């Protein structure tokens, strides 16, 4: 009869058998009993309707895990079976984990975006406004990429007065996220007006560093306004959502950050034209005002007043002369009338043969006014005769 095995020996044989038999397994299941350990290892189980198996992903492999494991998430695991001899238990040692039914990167993107959005990091009130005329701009990007050359070319044509500070950074690869975050923090200490963070186009894997939480937090915590300029217009990264402004491309970031010098030249020309017109209008207005004041002065000057008074005196003299002449003429006319009346009444002018002036009580009367016994006078220019009426006979 064979000698019995010790527990350790049996577990050791089982461990050897499992690890040599299940070198590369590919399994699908739902995550449960999830624990992210302080050591960086991830412990969890996967299950289906009938069974459960313990799993572990050690720290060395977790850095390749793009998304966050969540309880209830269905995943695909590639790895191998290993046994833990002291407890006689076995588990699935994971080397790669992908979400079931969708890409790991897409899931990681949605997870981080939802997390940051729930924290309010995308809220418009948290966005800083860009200065209109920046003097100094920090650019966090690769010093050898095409993006920096494109940005320099656009800046030269658009607003050559600005100063650029290049903060070199890795923009691709596993270590890029740490380098970008460090470069953002350094650029934030340079007291620049704007910070541009980005790179040229590439695949989602090439751009992935800008989807990392460490980069997102560095952008959010920066005091300098940040423009995210990653990839092309169709590419949307976490950095685009959390930055103060999103640019479609690195060149577009320069167009957003800098004013257009040609537009300002046109503006200055228009401003000069408006200034000249306003200046001419002001001069014309002042000239008209001076002419008016001069006219008012002339109208109210002593000389004008003296001339006016002299004119009034002249008019008064003329009026007096005319009035005096009118009075003299009136008196002359009256005298002429009296003279004519006198001439008409003068007996000498009335003397005719057989005619005398009949008077009674020194009043000239007609013959039909006399009565019998009246004493009347009969007068010619040379004689006066007194008579008594004896008889009156009417013809």
UniProtKB/TrEMBL annotation:
The keyword Ribosomal protein does not apply. One of its GO terms (biological process) is DNA catabolic process. One of its GO terms (molecular function) is exodeoxyribonuclease VII activity. Residues 121-353 form the Exonuclease VII large subunit C-terminal domain. One of its GO terms (cellular component) is exodeoxyribonuclease VII complex. Its EC number is 3.1.11.6. Pfam families: Exonuc_VII_L (PF02601), tRNA_anti_2 (PF13742). It comes from the Bacteria. Keywords: Cytoplasm, Exonuclease, Hydrolase, Nuclease. It catalyses: Exonucleolytic cleavage in either 5'- to 3'- or 3'- to 5'-direction to yield nucleoside 5'-phosphates. InterPro entries: Exonuc_VII_L (IPR003753), Exonuc_VII_lsu_C (IPR020579), OB-fold_nuc-bd_dom (IPR025824). It is found in: Cytoplasm. Bidirectionally degrades single-stranded DNA into large acid-insoluble oligonucleotides, which are then degraded further into small acid-soluble oligonucleotides. Heterooligomer composed of large and small subunits. Belongs to the XseA family. This is Exodeoxyribonuclease 7 large subunit. It comes from Malaciobacter mytili LMG 24559. The gene is xseA.
């Amino acid at each position: 009869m064979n000698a019995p095995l010790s527990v350790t020996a049996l577990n050791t044989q089982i461990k050897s058998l499992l690890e040599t038999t299940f070198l590369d397994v590919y399994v699908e299941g739902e995550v449960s009993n999830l624990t992210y350990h302080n050591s960086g290892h991830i412990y969890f189980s996967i299950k289906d309707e009938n069974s459960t198996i313990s799993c572990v992903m050690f720290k060395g492999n977790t850095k390749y895990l793009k998304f966050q494991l969540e309880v209830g998430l269905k995943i695909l695991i590639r790895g191998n079976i290993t046994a833990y001899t002291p407890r006689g238990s076995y588990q699935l040692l994971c080397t790669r984990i992908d979400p079931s039914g969708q890409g790991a990167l897409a899931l990681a993107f949605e997870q981080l975006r939802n997390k940051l959005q729930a924290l309010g990091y995308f809220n418009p009130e948290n966005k800083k406004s860009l200065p209109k005329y920046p003097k100094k701009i920090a650019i966090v990007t690769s010093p050898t990429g095409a993006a920096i050359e494109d940005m320099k070319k656009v800046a030269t044509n658009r607003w050559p007065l600005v100063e650029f500070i290049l903060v070199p950074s890795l923009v691709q690869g596993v270590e890029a996220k740490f380098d970008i975050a460090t470069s953002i923090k350094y650029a934030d200490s340079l007291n620049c007006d704007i910070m541009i963070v980005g790179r040229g186009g590439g695949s989602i894997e090439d751009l992935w560093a800008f989807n990392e939480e460490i980069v997102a937090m560095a952008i959010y915590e920066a005091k300098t306004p940040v423009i995210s300029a990653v990839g092309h217009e169709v590419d949307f990264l976490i950095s685009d959502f959390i930055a103060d402004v999103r640019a479609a491309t690195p060149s577009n970031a320069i167009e957003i950050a800098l004013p257009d010098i040609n537009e300002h030249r046109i503006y200055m020309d228009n401003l000069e034209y408006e200034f000249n017109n306003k200046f001419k209008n002001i001069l014309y207005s002042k000239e008209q005002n001076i002419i008016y004041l001069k006219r008012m002065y002339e109208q109210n000057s002593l000389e004008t007043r003296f001339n006016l008074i002299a004119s009034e005196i002249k008019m008064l003299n003329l009026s007096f002369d005319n009035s005096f002449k009118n009075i003299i003429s009136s008196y002359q006319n009256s005298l002429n009338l009296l003279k004519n009346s006198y001439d008409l009444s003068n007996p000498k002018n009335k003397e005719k043969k057989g005619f005398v002036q009949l008077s009674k009580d020194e009043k000239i009367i007609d013959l039909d006014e006399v009565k019998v016994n009246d004493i009347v006078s009969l007068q010619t220019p040379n004689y006066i005769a007194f008579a008594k009426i004896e008889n009156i006979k009417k013809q």
